[in-house]
Design a protein that fits this description.
mainly alpha
């Protein structure tokens, strides 16, 4: 499973890197030749995207390594760390671009974008939005937080191109609106900053062992309860590591059964959790004997 995640994550990230190289060339050339600060800012954002892609590859590679004596729970948190680095890079880029835009607005820097910048911004919107959707699809499929973070990064690039398009389009239509280009660059920085905070917040949830969403917990419990021989389920605890779920759960079985029979039921519960809940990577099951007042499975609602 880890090898499959690595291959699919690497494939989509390498495609994203190729798209980023193309977008960097288009936006920086278009911004320079077309006299647009917003488009140049957008191009710088794409440079940061290229760096983030390298971080994503490193995170996927390290996170896909199997468990060992030093890391008995696997290396998934390395992937989480990589997604946090991506979020931090977004914050740095946002602050830098925001400061530059604010300075240009304050000193009333005049720029008069050419039509070329409109074409470059439109091409960027289409390319980055398509790449964002593709990356998000793969990220959800392989349940990778760093790939999903990269998809958000690409979506922020597409949105920043929309802001750039509005700015350069308005300044091109009416030269008196030249300051609109700098305001658009400011909007770009705010968008990037917001996305960066979201990526870091999600990473911190994993680092602090936050539980998965309630619907995932309900799915886990329902899966365990439906196994024949399970009388009750309690003390279900779960966390995520690298986007995958590690959980511990207690099941109640007939106290008159042998240890071998109780173990067999536990193995059925484990098989159910691993096969039906795709996010599950690791399961620890405790088998408890039923009390006299524990109702049989058939009588429970």
């Amino acid at each position: 499973m880890l090898n499959d995640r690595w291959r699919e994550g690497r494939k989509v990230t390498l495609i994203g890197m190729a798209v980023n190289v193309l977008m960097i060339a288009i936006k920086l050339a278009g911004g320079w030749l077309g006299h647009s600060q917003a488009l140049i800012a957008d191009g710088v954002h794409s440079v940061s995207d290229l760096i983030n892609d390298a971080v994503v590859l490193l995170g996927l590679s390290a996170g896909s390594r199997p468990a060992d004596d030093s890391h008995p729970f696997g290396h998934g948190r390395v992937e989480t760390l990589a997604s946090m680095v991506v979020g931090g890079a977004l914050l740095l880029v946002a602050v830098s671009l925001g400061f530059r835009s604010a300075r240009d607005i304050y000193v009333h820097v005049e720029r008069h974008p050419a039509f070329l910048t409109i074409v470059a911004a439109a091409v960027s919107i289409l390319a980055k939005e398509a790449m964002s959707r593709y990356t998000a699809h793969v990220g959800r499929k392989i349940m990778s937080p760093v790939v999903l973070a990269n998809a958000w990064d690409q979506r922020s690039d597409a949105l920043s191109s929309v802001a750039a398009l509005i700015g350069v389009g308005g300044a091109w239509l009416n030269p008196n609106w030249h300051i609109l280009d700098s305001y658009a660059a400011m909007v770009v920085s705010l968008m990037i900053f917001t996305v960066g905070l979201g990526v870091i917040r999600n990473s911190l949830k994993e680092f602090t062992d936050a539980a998965p969403p309630p619907e995932i917990l309900q799915q886990l419990e329902s899966c365990a309860r439906k196994v024949s021989g399970v009388l009750d389920v309690h003390d279900l605890k779960a966390r995520t590591s690298g986007g995958l779920v590690q959980l511990e759960v207690h099941i109640v079985v007939d106290g008159g059964q042998s240890v071998k029979e109780g173990h067999a039921i536990a193995k059925e519960v484990e098989a159910c959790l691993l096969s039906e809940v795709h996010q599950v990577m690791q399961v620890t099951i405790h088998v408890d004997p039923a009390d006299e007042d524990t109702p049989p499975a058939a009588s429970r609602p």
